[in-house]
UniProtKB/TrEMBL annotation:
Residues 137-231 form the TonB-dependent receptor plug domain. Keywords: Cell outer membrane, Membrane, Receptor, TonB box, Transmembrane, Transmembrane beta strand, Transport. Residues 292-762 form the TonB-dependent receptor-like beta-barrel domain. It is found in: Cell outer membrane. GO terms for molecular function: siderophore uptake transmembrane transporter activity. Belongs to the TonB-dependent receptor family. Its main location: membrane. It is a multi-pass membrane protein. This is TonB-dependent receptor. GO terms for cellular component: cell outer membrane. PROSITE patterns: TONB_DEPENDENT_REC_3 (PS52016). One of its GO terms (biological process) is siderophore transmembrane transport.
Amino acid sequence: MQDLLKLCCVVWLSLGTASMGQSQSGACSIVLTGRIMGLDNHEPLAGATVYIRELATGAVADSAGNFRIPGLCSGEYSIDYQFVGYKTRVVSIAVGTDSPVALPPVALTPDNETLKEVIVTEHRSEAQQLLQVQTELAGSSLDATRGQSLGESLKTLPGLYSIQTGPSISKPVIHGLYSNRILTLNNGVRQEDQQWGSEHAPQIDPFLASRLTVIKGAASIRYGSDAIGGVILVEPKTMPTVPGIAGELNLVGGTNGDQGIVSGLIEQAFGKKLAGLSWRLQGTLKRVGYTKTPDYYLENSSYHENNFSGTVNYTRQHVGAEIFYSQFSTKVGLFTGAQVGSLADFYAAIARPEPINQPGFSYDLGRPYQQVQHDLLKVKAFVRSERLGTLSITVAQQQNVRREYDLQSFSRVTDPELYLKLVTQTADLIWEHRAIKTATGGQFSGTVGFNGITQGNVRRYLFLIPNYRNYGAGLFAIERYANDNWTVEGGVRYDYRWLRAYFLDETTNLTTAKTRDWSNLTGSLGATYQASPQLTLSGTMSTAWRAPTVSDLYSDGLHQSAVAYERGNPNLNPELAYNMNLSVEYTGKRFYADLGFYNNWINNYIYLKPDSVPIIRQRGAFPAYSYSQVRATFRGLDATIRYKLTDQLTITSRTSLLFAYDHTNNDYLVYIPANHTDNGLRYDFSTTNRGRLSNVYVSITSQYVARQNRVPTVTQRQENGQIIFTGDFAPPPPAYTLFGAEAGFSWRVGNHPMSVILTGTNLLNRAYRDYLDRFRYFADEPGRNIMLKLKLPLTFASRQ
């Protein structure tokens, strides 16, 4: 409690030094819907933009002219409706507590001065162009996750999990699939950061994003051959268009690990002769000490982050260009209790209920640890024609340098045991043709594109994966037809991948090379039916594939961060997936339900299988894993149900069920997420935005995670005086239930609200272990954590 009081004092003292402007308020769930058409012909205006000034967010109308903006709070808003060739219309609305809010159709008036140069900014998520099952974190829901990693933030969404390596490393999991089966787009660029490692978390600063969108299921037609499990879009907020300088400051503090986070942003849009030009700078500093379980601290679990980014954008009516650069730098300590020196120590550590070493709290960060720096440079340009559509090109270069340091140094103390430098160039050429109307009132819209990638990897010191070159290219076409209540979409894609790995014979000092190449054709078909204003039905069927990576094929060494010995299999074949998704969404005045069913059949599914006997090396004894390949299915259900008991009291339930099976061996698969359900009760106090205090709420939550019983049978036997394991090194941990709470409010200073959110996790301080944590063999998960999150707008110059 003393830690919390200290934290509150520090944060509130910080408030007195900050200039205040506009911010989005507490956790809200109101959905705003509407339709945009032309006054001249009363036809829908596909691609028209809807922009909420107070929130600096919006949406783009689909081919039927409809738009949807989730995550709003009650209050008063000014909405800009815009479309090229039509006059902008500004409408003021008042949003109550009921959801959804259906706005009356808006008709835009043609602008006779069509040759006049105007600034056009699209406030749409790239995912809105695709007819696939998707979910998102945005606005106040995203604010409530500030301070967490990308993987931890996304765990709040149904169907999303995370695979962990201790308390500081978390990777997103979609429907049981992760690593190279999930593509992450960082500001429109395919993130390449050695994501094959289970303990290689995405090197992305979540504070960059104003929206995190997750496309569930195979999305390889648009994004590339590896998107068997899905796609994560990290999308920054749109660049400013109103002249002036403004910014934002986020302060986050947490009691567990005494963590402190500061993230700031400053941006400017120019007017008059420089209209259309804008810039933005953003940065984040993060420091976390030893994480505490309910009973002990995890030695060397500290981690640091230093991130920054900058953007320059120029956008006019028919042309636009943007330059973006970001650097993510982190140093992550690895729990020393997972380091063992012999087989006897390894078995004893698994059997031991607590680690032997239990130090007090510290910010110290020593061996073993990993240090990673990821640099990204992107240049994008577009040309828009009312007759032909929009042509855009994006080129980017990334450099990912990973250093992993073992507990003991095998060369100079300053040298890592594992060094990997990956340089990636990508290019995307996309043409969106103009909407084509049919005589029956329907409308065609579509995209044709090319994606290219080239990579080079250099290793040093101990061997895990070889040096390699990798090339890939893909061509795709997606077409959509909308008419009345129906929308149908189909797509086709061709991909080619080429890989050459280089091996050095240390005896002869000769280099040999192994070359593999693959190609495949994939397709997708989907449809959405708007049965009523409240009920939407949708379904998709698609195929996808993934070529084996260099780690799948040629790994052969100790993976320091994973504390595991990994062996590749050079005989692996590409994965082939057949995916089906069905979704039912109902949005009533008091009742909301979203049910999603999925089935993913994967031939040649590649996974790391625990070996029976740990590997003994000079450094010690390590769990051993080998890449294996089977026929597998992943099927399940994602369900979100929300009901308003009263105007102020809402109950929400989110459940994710997943069933995976190995059909080759007629057995279960390892490291598959357990079924879980999250339930919450939220109370919104009756306040209005006319006073200083508004959007006051409090909520309590419970999370139940079942024991994962669908695993290969874990057995052990004595053989030649040695313990032999089969299935895994330890059985899955028991089920557990965690309780949490959240409270928030907005405090209006002048005309602008300030957001304050207080969250608590594992409030009962329960000791538990999670099946998806690679360190579950050695230690418990984190205990109670109280976090205070403040979002402070900054105004440096008045906006016109």
